[in-house]
Specification:
The complex is a heterotrimer of chains A (about 260), B (about 220) and C (about 650). Chain A folds into two domains: about 110 residues, Beta-grasp domain (Ubiquitin-like (UB roll)); about 120 residues, Orthogonal Bundle (Fumarate Reductase Iron-sulfur Protein, Chain B, domain 2). Helices cover about 35% and strands about 15% of the residues of chain A. Chain A contains eight helices and seven strands. A five-stranded mixed beta sheet of chain A has the order 2-1-5-3-4. In chain A, strands 6-7 form a two-stranded antiparallel sheet. The longest helix of chain B has 30 residues. Chain C is of the alpha+beta class and about 650 residues long. Among the domains of chain C are: about 160 residues, Flavocytochrome C3, Chain A, domain 1, CATH 3.90.700.10; about 130 residues, Methane Monooxygenase Hydroxylase, Chain G, domain 1 (Up-down Bundle). Helix content of chain C is about 40%, strand content about 15%. In chain C, the strands form five sheets. In chain C, strands 5-2-1-9-17 form a five-stranded parallel beta sheet, with helices on both faces. The chains are: A alpha+beta (about 260), B mainly alpha (about 220), C alpha+beta (about 650). Chains in contact: A-B, A-C. The interface between A and C is large, with 82 and 83 residues.
Chain lengths: ~260, ~220, ~650
């Protein structure tokens, strides 16, 4: 089962750094096994490039089990490739055919500048969380965990929203490069839980303001984000965020 | 910036403006389609002209008409602004996209469909609304809109343009109707199906009704 | 035997139950005005690092946090699946702080420090409170209260969880606290930065040298204290459940600057991982231990049985864990479950194409849960197929994401055929030696979480890693760091122009220069794979004197070859993952040597360290408490040269016994 016999042509975006223009390079790759993950296939490609004294392709990856959110390849026109509900690292070569040509691009968004090859800068997501994606509770202030019963369905729904891995596939998939699924997942999680109530309004206002400042596009409700989300975060979160924001803007005392 | 302008110029604010103006225009379509459908009484335009006269002269309606014009202008301007911003949010485009795997073509083409509708709208208003209102301002008299319809829709090209306009409107509504509700946060498992069904029905019935008017006149079903 | 004079664990006096309380009330404090002028560097942003950084910033310290990932939220704590232990006794099943303490010491095969472990058990409840307050969506019962499940090596239900993504939810909680402080300007975050050395001035740790992984520039950062929260070193085996980027470099640099490395050979092999499928494999994926709550582990009774799992009838199956350990059954601790699987496979009973796998079977659980659903709905005549259907739905709710993950990787549907699993490297109990304050042997240099050695002895119990990381970060270090920093209030800002910074940066720079100029023929990846094979074959689940001696020779040769033949592509002043990798592999090679030396020195079997020469007649680990009840703390002297210092382990509150789960 080790080395396989698939042959592929890879069309990969190469770009030296943020300031230079990039372009596609074509690579032929033999001996790909259907049991390999997509990233393992890239490992093989890189070994081959090193042997040819060429610089390997840079790509973000870490846990390789679909939870860290590092990997971020736009494969044949879709973030994380053709399968639903998986990240690039969980995509296996059995999803492709022998002889396929596969085009691999980085996430494309003004708010996600390319650092190198397939690696993009997603710091904007961290700044959005800094703007309000938290409950302001200092260590040591907490009361007993069971003093606050939470209906199971609310807890479950909050969990589903909290499952977001901030990979950015939503932005990559959206025709407008909008980050609303990411932002709304965090706003939803905390709006659904009693712990999040105290800062509910200010959170929605500040996170949306930061999202806008980062230069992400505006949602037009195409649902591409949730269709491509590897964690299948529901589109309902965006509607909830709209509600939260409209409510906050119209009722909060912040002028 | 005051909280109000800040809210309206935020990403969600801009969406809300699209949504509210869109819903307002949808409500206008109901009135417009209902009154124009009076031609199907085939009574020589009597019922149609009666209501047309009411709409053209009632002071409340005339005041609301200013709102309608504003509604159109804001919807169009906001749409253009959003389109521009959304395009600049992705300065480098993808070489390959497989968007059909994750969304419908018409949901991604609202700007294009809107532009087609806008072109149609220019033609349409220059056929009826602009000459009629100009005449009203100039002479205080209304034109005979029914007769104008009978005349204008004798030209096959005009009929084709109108039908194409209605088709654009149908696709635009197919996404726009339910999208407007989502933007306002009205999205709930209990009501989503109802909104979707009503939206689809509306998007088919209203444009079909509109399209039938030039067709019927051209084919002589209405005379 | 006496503790080396070089090791002072600074364990507070008093009875075990009172130590921490008394310590907290007597530890020196730093007043708020002084805190503003004291800088703390936190390296790593997993559970330990993020929680420490957030808490220290809340207290008023100036914090700089570093991570090599593109965001602090991606640290590998995020991948922990099963849960987090806490002695809350919400289930009223007799749990207590003492019981958690006892289970942890026993689970660690009596090789951990009493005082540290007791403190861990004491603060465990606070962790759950803190996380819930942050909005961590733990699993709940219909009444709205928190749900618990059981884990290996334990007979109570004390594990809190969020589906199979507990680590993710806890980390995002800590990360949100960290980002909140970043937003307030009290933490400066340096992502895509890797710490490449520790800077010492007059014997104290005064800062670090870090490489900006985007620009390749070396940066000097000074601080009054440095906290290494950099995780474990399981990737020394190449294949492990760790993330690709997980590495030992920060801890190893600290070691080479004087921090002792403790018990490096104590590695945990997790029993339930997806088996290796081929040469191309880059990492192994864990299937949460929580699956052993409901899954039954077995192999065919016949050797070399090639039938599919679901075609082998009940009477031809050997549920070997239930057979050998009736009291704990499938929930024996990890080291025992792993060795039992290896024993069966070595004896020729393994399954799958590689024969290096055993079955983890849920058919009994499908039936049991399905019947439960039928009973709940008062249905008495449901057909078996319907019952199984209901049962699968219940299992899906509990472990759905794990089943999906399994199917994704193997292409097999675990609802239909039993899972195949095999042990894999998962966690390292060893790490930098720390005292009660979590300070290493270098003053001002601390180590938290998996990076230190302190709480898990020779084997860690499931759901205890998350507990330890957060205990260290939220509740221990914020108190204990005061003991040192109270003496630093007059130090003032530390200039990075100091000779020590210049010199250390030069050493780092020289090494990078050397790595990139060798331009040999072999990529860092290939060296890593070769190191991993030596380690797994000779210092893995079972070790023996001969193999370890061979391994040491082979690793030394590999190190020399590496420095002659490594091929690093790309440039220094660039985003260059190959260079990062080469830096890490170089350190792994040195660590591997020390691990083998440590394993060779410890002439006993305990926990995850199984020396084939030391086992009972039934094949269980044979501890030697008389001669080896100590922590091995290694001091780096020179290349290939270490000195062993021993810290005696004293058990005043626990009766030491042969560990039995039978």
């Amino acid at each position: 089962m080790s080395a396989g016999n698939m042959r592929l042509t890879l069309k990969v975006w190469r770009q030296s750094n943020t300031d230079t223009k990039g372009g596609f390079e074509n690579y032929n790759l033999d001996g790909v096994s259907p049991d390999m993950s997509f990233l393992e296939m890239f490992d093989i490609l890189n070994e081959q490039l090193i042997e040819e004294n060429k610089e390997p392709v840079a790509f973000d990856h870490d846990c390789r089990e679909g939870i860290c959110g590092s990997c971020s390849m736009f494969i044949n026109g879709q973030p994380h490739g053709p399968l639903k509900g998986v990240t690039t690292c969980q995509l296996h070569m059995r999803s492709f055919q022998d002889g396929d040509t596969i085009t691999v691009e980085p996430w494309r968004a003004g708010a996600f500048p390319v650092i190198k090859d397939l690696v993009v800068d997603r710091d904007g997501f961290d700044r959005i969380i800094s703007a309000g994606g938290f409950v302001s509770v200092n260590t040591g202030n907490a009361q007993d965990a069971n003093s606050l019963p939470i209906p199971k369905e609310n807890a479950d729904e909050a969990f589903s929203a909290a499952a977001c891995i901030a990979c950015g596939a939503c932005v990559a998939a959206c025709k407008n490069a909008s980050a609303m699924l990411f932002v709304s997942a965090k706003i939803s999680q905390l709006a659904l839980l009693p712990q999040g109530q105290a800062e509910r309004s200010i959170r929605a206002e500040k996170m949306v303001a930061q999202m806008d400042a980062e230069g992400f596009g505006n949602c037009t409700n195409t649902h591409a984000c949730s269709a491509e989300c590897p964690k299948e975060i529901s589109f309902e979160n965006i509607a909830r965020m709209n509600r939260e924001y409209i409510g906050a803007k119209s009722s909060s005392k912040v002028l | 910036m005051s909280w109000f302008t800040q809210a309206l110029t935020s990403s969600i604010g801009k969406k809300v403006i699209m949504s509210l103006t869109g819903l307002f225009l949808i409500s206008f379509l109901v009135i417009h389609a209902s009154i124009n459908a009076m031609i199907f009484y085939n009574d020589g335009g009597e019922t149609f002209s009666h209501w047309g006269h009411f709409m053209g002269t009632n002071p409340i309606i005339r005041t609301l008409e200013i709102g309608l014009v504003l509604g159109f202008l804001i919807h169009i301007a906001d749409g253009l602004w959003l389109t521009k911003l959304n395009q600049s949010a992705r300065p480098v485009k993808y070489a390959v996209t497989n968007a059909s795997a994750n969304s419908t073509w018409y949901s991604r083409s609202m700007g294009l469909l809107g532009t087609l509708i806008l072109i149609f709208l220019v033609i349409h208003t220059s056929h009826f609304w602009i000459p009629n209102r100009s005449n009203q301002f100039a002479t205080g008299e209304e034109l005979n809109l029914y007769q104008m319809m009978l005349d204008i829709f004798q030209n096959i090209w005009v009929v084709i343009i109108y039908v194409l306009g209605c088709i654009s409107l149908a696709w635009h509504l197919l996404h726009g109707f339910k999208s407007a509700f989502k933007t306002l946060g009205l999205y709930h498992v209990k009501y989503n199906d109802a909104i979707r069904v009503i939206g689809v029905a509306f998007s088919i019935i209203v444009p079909t009704l509109f399209a039938l008017m030039p067709i019927s006149i051209y084919l002589g079903w209405v005379y | 035997m006496a503790t080396s004079s070089r090791l002072d664990a600074r364990i507070p006096q008093g009875s075990l139950e009172d130590k921490w309380e008394k310590y907290k009330s007597s530890v020196p404090l730093v007043n708020p005005a002084n805190k503003r002028n004291i800088e703390v560097i936190v390296v790593g942003t997993g559970l330990a690092g993020a929680s420490a950084a957030a808490t220290l910033a809340e207290m008023g310290y100036k914090v700089k946090a570093f991570c090599f990932q593109d965001s602090p939220r991606r640290a590998h704590s995020i991948a922990a699946q099963g849960g987090i232990n806490a002695a809350k006794n919400y289930q009223n099943d007799g749990d207590s702080v003492h019981r958690l303490f006892y289970d942890t010491i026993k689970g660690g095969d009596y090789r951990s420090r009493e005082a540290n472990v007791h403190r861990l058990a004491e603060v465990s409840g606070n962790i759950i409170d803190q996380c819930v307050a942050q909005g961590v969506p733990f699993a709940r019962e219909y009444g709205g209260l928190l749900s618990n499940r059981s884990f290996g090596g334990v007979q109570v239900q004390r594990t809190f969880y969020a589906a199979g993504q507990t680590g993710q939810q806890l980390l995002l909680g800590a990360y949100s606290g960290l980002q909140r402080q970043v937003g307030m300007g009290t933490i400066t975050m340096y992502n895509r930065h890797e710490m490449l050395d520790v800077v010492k001035i007059d014997g104290k740790c005064r800062g670090i040298i870090a490489r900006n992984l985007v620009t390749g520039e070396l940066e000097r950062h000074s601080a009054h204290a440095v906290l290494l929260c950099t995780g474990g070193y399981g990737n020394v085996f190449y294949l492990s459940t760790n993330a690709m980027g997980s590495n030992v470099t920060a801890a190893w640099k600290a070691h080479k600057r004087g921090a002792f490395f403790a018990n490096p050979c104590f590695t945990q092999i997790h029993p339930t991982c997806i088996p290796v499928s081929g040469e191309h494999q880059s990492k192994l994926t864990l299937m949460s231990e929580s699956l052993r709550n409901d899954g039954r582990i077995w192999v065919p009774k016949k050797q070399n049985d090639t039938r599919a799992g679901n075609e082998i009838p009940e009477e031809e199956r050997d549920y070997y864990l239930e057979r050998r350990y009736p009291a704990f059954g499938n929930l024996v601790p990890r080291d025992i479950a792993s060795r039992a699987a290896k024993e069966r496979c070595d004896a020729g009973y393994g399954v799958g194409s590689s024969k290096l796998a055993v079955f983890l079977d849920f058919s009994a659980a499908f039936h049991r849960y399905g019947q439960g659903e039928a009973n709940k709905n008062n249905i008495t005549n449901a057909p078996e197929s319907q019952i199984l259907e209901w049962g699968k739905a219940v299992v899906k709710e509990k472990y759905g994401n794990l089943f999906d993950m399994y199917k994704q990787i193997t292409g097999e549907d675990p609802y239909e055929v039993p899972m195949r699993i095999y042990p894999a490297v998962h966690y390292t109990m060893g790490g930098l030696w720390v005292d009660y304050n979590l300070m290493t042997t270098v003053p001002g240099l601390y180590s938290l979480g998996e990076a230190n050695f302190s709480d898990h002895g020779a084997n860690r119990l499931g759901a205890s890693a998350l507990m330890q990381g957060l205990a260290d970060g939220y509740f221990v270090i914020p108190i204990t760091v005061g003991a040192y920093l109270a003496g630093e209030i007059r130090t003032g800002h530390i200039s990075t122009d100091h000779e020590a910074f210049v010199q250390t940066e030069k050493e780092v720079s020289d090494r990078i220069q050397k790595l990139i100029t060798i331009q040999g023929k072999t990529s860092p990846e290939v060296f890593h794979r070769r190191l991993g094979k030596i380690m797994w074959d000779k210092c893995g689940m079972a070790r023996n004197e001969k193999g370890l001696k061979e391994a040491i020779v082979e690793i030394r040769a590999l190190r020399e070859e590496f420095w002659k033949d490594v091929k690093v592509m790309g440039k220094i002043g660039d985003f260059n993952p190959e260079l990062d990798k080469a830096n890490r592999v170089a350190d792994f090679i040195e660590l591997g040597e020390l691990m083998c030396i440590d394993a060779l020195t410890r002439d006993e079997s305990c926990g995850g360290h199984f020396r084939e020469e030391f086992q009972t007649e039934e094949g269980e680990a044979l501890r030697d408490d008389e001669n080896f009840m100590f922590v091995s703390a290694w001091e780096h002297i020179a290349t290939e040269k270490w000195e062993l210092h021993k810290e005696d382990l004293v058990y005043d509150n626990i009766k030491i016994a042969q560990r039995s789960y039978k």
